[in-house]
Fold these 4 entries.
Entry 1:
Amino acid sequence: MIKEEYLDIAPYSDNEFQHKMAEMVNDPGLEHAVRYVMPDVDYPEFVKGLRSLTTAHQFQQQVMRPFIELLAQRTTSGISSSGIENVADGETYTFITNHRDIVLDASFLNLCFMRADKPTSEVAIGNNLLIYDWITHLVKLNQSFIVKRDLKMIQALEAAKQLSGYIHFCLNEKHRSVWIAQREGRAKDSNDLTQESLVKMLGLGGGGTILENLKSARLLPVSISYEYDPNDYLKAREFLLKRNDPSFKKSKRDDLFSMETGLLGHKGRVHFTIGKCINPGLDKISPDAERQEVVKSTCSLIDRTIHRGYMIFPINYIAYDKITGTDRFIGHYTDEEIKRVDNYIDGQLAKVDLEDLTDDDYDYMRRMMLQMYANPLTNKLRAEGDNRS
């Protein structure tokens, strides 16, 4: 039973599942989205199947899992995982990951859990993405909880307390794991660093000191590695627009297009490295440590685990060598792979829909794309103690 204080952010319960499903399937926006992703769908039959479901578990297993498997088959060269043995049976965790895709990070991770017969996690999703009612219904039917964003200071503190309280309630009373990204929004340059505000939020709930609360959150970092980022050219475009106009901000239409591109674009190989719960590291922090010291040490533990867990692909080695002007990793790629990466980047930049672009603009965007692909390797080297990175 969900506590009343969490009802507005919590996933739908099984008691309200069918009622909320009926509301969602009656929304014309859902039909448009489903036909966009699955052009050959028999929509009336699809809706009939949805309305026959009675629980979130059925929805995940019978609808979402086949859909995500199909998406993986069509848009990746395979999804793999390692470290699944670090997820102990009967234990709950806060899976905290770097952020590569708005929609698919948690979906693909849950797919890895389903393939390994492990329970899925509830998923944190920002309310900035809930631009239509049917999207709100979809995510809450699919065991997602809502992160309230863009609030004034007093409201933001109350929302953080509510969110932290719900995560601890989910872990310790609902006995469900949760997923949350290490930062709000994706790191545009793939320099993945945990936001201190996120750790502070997680330390609010639990009823103890910040250190005790973080231990009870059982933080388990997971590294996400995409061979190719379908949104890389959109990120390069955004970097250019911000360079030319520091006040530039994306529109909701931009966010929606990013979601579509991330969903349907080719990602190459995708790998999840499931780390270990960082509680042994937190145990080394003095109970008398200042709050800010606890926060910084926790961020560092998360970052090091994520950085060490990256799977490095040829494009990362090539980008690193191009950015640094060296041939340090020449043994990790071939001339053919260099040509393939150059052609890939040129092809992505050709999609940028801005007028009057100069050679300097293209050079800048190309450099930013190379930086995106070099940074995971740079961070992995640093995390492993390589001082040359």
Note: The first strand starts at residue 79 and ends at 82.
Entry 2:
Amino acid sequence: MPIIKSAKKALRQNIARRARNAKVKNKVRALIKNLTKLVAAKNAEEIKKTLILAVKAIDKAAKNHIIPKNTASRKKSFLAKLANSGLEQPTKKD
């Protein structure tokens, strides 16, 4: 445990920031998980809404340096591909 006053304050700040960052990361994870379930259920309207929310949450997390910029980009790309596969209409083959 810290002894110096400034170290005690730094510890308090670290705990608060870690909790805030974990909350944001959990929200992103939950939205991604929700989107994968919706794709499996083929629910087009909900897929579109959830994709928008997920991308928005990922962008905010990257803007605040909670997740790295390239990680955010990779996650958004994955979600876009996933959503497109869920929104595809089956094509008729002659």
Note: The two ends are 73 Å apart (CA to CA).
Entry 3:
Amino acid sequence: MARLTIEMPHVGESVTEAVIGKWLVSPGDTVRRYDPLVEVITDKVNMEVPSPRDGTITGLLVSEDDTVQMGAPIAEMEVEGATPEPEHVASPEQETAVSAGPSVQAASRVGSMIIGANVGPTGGEFTDTSLQTEPSTESAQAAAPSAPSRRRRRERDDRGARISPVVRRLAEKHGLDVNAIPGTGAGGRVTRKDVETYLESQTTGQLDELIEPTAIRRIIADNMARSFREIPHAWGAVEVDVTELVRYRKANIDRIQEATGQRLTYLPIVLQSIAQALREHRLLNSSWVDGKVELKGDINIGVAVAAEQGLIVPVLHNADRLTLEETVSEMSRIVDGARAGKLNLDDVQGGTFTLNNTGALGSILGGAIINYPQAAIMTTEAIVKRPVVVDTPTGDEAIAIRSMMNMCLSFDHRIIDGAEAMAFMNDVKTRLESISQDIDS
């Protein structure tokens, strides 16, 4: 028998570390090639790392909830034959799933992605999404049962979640019912930290509560802090009369439904107008790289989607080249993929600008944190009806009830000044206010 070290797989140039979410094997387990060994979480995707060979797991080198650099050793196994070189082996299904994007050679399943920009959730008329992604916070030692095989039946609580031996012994020591303890682990599993927190709550009464952030929340927090620390944010807003946009959507719901099978919302129409405006205002579609401004050749717009644990931003590639029907169809595909956890790396990489809709939550004004390393992020706010002064065909002024919406833009002040930011926003404003004449369907 020879010993093989299993390393954390590389999943793309921009991903340098990952968090160990949940071990799926224990020391002593016999595994076959491509069997999933561990769930890992990055700021791009969640995935399962498969076994590179047939063999027996001899040791877990890192614990659940640990942050590990790409290429670092995470486990050891014994295999038949001579000691092989460290390898990263992808399953046939995974090779197909990510063939269009960067290599994820050790991932057998590409799952959901989170990205750490402080952008608000989308929903309502624009997008309505939900993504369940919850990493374990229990240590590998607590998560690993003592049985020699992971196929052996494990003790579970009344909710169906597995109870590790460490958690069971700790609960019994203090006379606690595991079923009464809220679980924060994967699938509602009670972790050792949950038991300790529960014990503290019983002794401290109504004192302040400390909540252990999930691995995903920590990644989001790090990325938000980095964006706000490294990018000098500036902010502006314009008011848009979207009465014609509302009429356009109402008039085209049936046509788009028949052509695409999808319900037409406001967001694809707004996104298309932004994509066209980015052609004329290239500084908004750029990044600050080593003291220089990198103007992006493609216009790839990320759409912020709400998740219970954080945010996911799938990307609509080459958005300026799509018709409205194509925009609706592609947006539906990536949003549904986010909901089902079936996005591949190409769906979440390459974004050059981000669109976010906080209006679905009732917000009327706000400033978002830029999605690093992009140069800007735009938020669309709630559409409300109110009286405004309008010009009449005779040249007089009158008060009319109009549908109004605020658009807010956060931008990198190293690259963009207020004049350029306002020129871009006014371009989008003009396109939306004259939507019945200018829309490209």
Note: The domain at 218-438 is CATH 3.30.559.10 (Chloramphenicol Acetyltransferase).
Entry 4:
Amino acid sequence: MHAFFASGTRALRSVSIPAVLALAVSLPAPAAAIYNFTSFDGPGSNGGGTTVNGIDNNGAVVGFSSDNAAAPTLLTNFIRNPDGTFTALNIGSDPLAMANGINDAPAIVGSHSNGTAYVLVGGSLLPLSNVTPTTTSETAFGASDTGLIVGQFVDSATGTTPGFLLGGGGYTILIPVINALVTNAQGVNNHGVVTGFYSADGVHQHGFFYDSTTHAYTLAPDPVIANLVLTQFLGMNDLGVAAGYYQLPDGSQHGLLYDSNTHAYTFLDDPNAAHSGVSITQITGINNSGELTGFYVDAASGLQRGFVANPSIPTPEPGTFGSLALALVAALPFRRRFAARHATAR
């Protein structure tokens, strides 16, 4: 375990683009929280590393181990329990299925290797229906305790990849800006607020929020980082804090938190990630206790490993931005958190 400081700074609904609320960047000088990091490797054959995708309010995390000795790579999906033990997940006996999100039930959501999405509850595996008649593939990334599910699908009719919100008996198609080519809805909290990221040019990506009550989008400001390539929000808690990472031109990706109430960013990497050169950390989830989860590439071994990080007593932070820590390799927009070697701009 390592202590590390965070530096502050329904029936198918027709597609509509509600008024977008653009936030002004305000970066106060918050206290710097101290996080205690615990690294772990997932169960099973783990030569291709561990990918961790989400955390519930009890501290259980979900993800998969990768066996890169197999062709194709085989995945061992798991829940890491709060006591550090693992529960293996059998997702329809599909060795290439991915477990992407978890809620307190726990219900697990993700995708099969054939491009269909699922929810796994109490041993029962339930397929999700296609978002539209022209859906060619879809994946689920997050689920709230209230039964909302979010994800992404490929639409052959438009040639785009929108996000979706499933709840209230039907789908809502998510497109934060009218020219978005890719929208990835990654998380949804118990207030019905969705977070994720979008791209209008296929390269640069930006975080967003969608309020399912008001049907309004909020476009988050990108962090003020020189040569920024992309920003991804991958999960959020009920307090309105989103977790994710940003990417630089060399492929480095650095963990971040964004407080949607204060509009402040916090930058935080696993202390075992590289401190120079290409460095990889993604924060993929945050729960209501402020506990974080994600994965990083270990500087010593080069292996992708999972982590959980617990906040402890905050200390005063004199500056607006403290030291930056470092983060992960880009992944496909619709298949974000796969092992770093599979990454492109996700």
Note: The longest strand covers residues 135-143.
